[in-house]
């Protein structure tokens, strides 16, 4: 049964971005969003008009600098390939421990509706229940959408971090 990665997080984090679980390629590279066709890192850096560094350490440092925590809903799972539809025996991560580690969290952004649904179904009790949540379009290459469209729908993340709280109608879907 594959295991996910530890969170990229520290006590300064204000926003949590949750994916479902690492793809096969991400597991091979031991990196969040390690598939070069996944738009996550390109979108994230483009939100602040920053060039995308090649080094994974620079990418994760940027996440922490922006006061973002990055993790996945699932700790363990059975799956063939990388598709969420093939998940069996899912076990969620320890979100109570994350909440203790990141006491300043103000919002949760899901990197897909599937991640939001899994979280809602599996995380009981929910230590992050009081936080607003937004499901953003998946950055996976399986989610067919032009880059510019996905980027525009991810703008509420930047707005939240810069104090311009999205009104719920600015791109994301509340799970």
Order of helices and strands: EHHHEEEHEHEH
Radius of gyration: 15 Å
Oligomer: single chain
Overall average pLDDT: 89
Count the DSSP helices: 6
- The rounded distance between the terminal residues' Cα atoms is 28 Å
Instruction: Give the total of beta strands.
Output: 6
Q: Could you say which structural class the secondary elements and strand pairing correspond to?
A: alpha/beta
Net shape: globular
Major β-sheet profile? 4 strands, parallel
Tell me what the structure shows.
This protein is α/β, with parallel strands linked by helices and 175 residues long. The chain contains six helices and six strands, in the order βαααβββαβαβα. Strands 2-1-5-6 form a four-stranded parallel β-sheet. A two-stranded antiparallel ribbon has the order 3-4. Helix 2 (40-47) packs across helix 6 (147-161).
Give short descriptive properties of this protein.
single chain; 175 residues; alpha/beta; 4-stranded parallel beta sheet; disordered C terminus
Itemize the secondary structure elements and their pairings.
Layout: E1 15-19, H1 24-29, H2 40-47, H3 56-65, E2 68-72, E3 74-78, E4 88-92, H4 95-101, E5 107-111, H5 113-122, E6 133-136, H6 147-161
Parallel strand pairs: 1-2, 1-5, 5-6
Antiparallel strand pairs: 3-4
Helix pairs in contact: 2-6
């Amino acid at each position: 049964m594959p295991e996910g990665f530890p969170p990229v997080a520290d006590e300064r984090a204000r926003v949590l971005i949750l994916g479902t679980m690492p793809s096969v390629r991400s597991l091979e590279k031991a990196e969040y969003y390690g598939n070069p066709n996944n738009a996550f890192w390109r979108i994230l850096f483009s939100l602040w008009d920053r060039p995308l560094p090649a080094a994974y350490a620079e990418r994760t440092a940027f996440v922490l600098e922006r006061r973002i925590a990055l993790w996945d809903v699932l700790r363990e799972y059975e799956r063939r390939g990388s598709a969420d539809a093939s998940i069996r025996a899912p076990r969620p991560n320890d979100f109570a421990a994350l909440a203790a580690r990141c006491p300043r969290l103000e919002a949760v952004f899901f990197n897909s509706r599937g991640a939001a649904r899994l979280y809602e179904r599996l995380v009981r009790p929910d230590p992050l229940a009081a936080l607003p949540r937004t499901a953003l379009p998946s950055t996976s290459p399986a989610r067919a959408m032009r880059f510019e469209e996905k980027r525009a729908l991810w703008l509420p993340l930047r707005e939240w971090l810069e104090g311009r709280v999205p009104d719920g109608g600015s791109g994301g879907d509340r799970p």
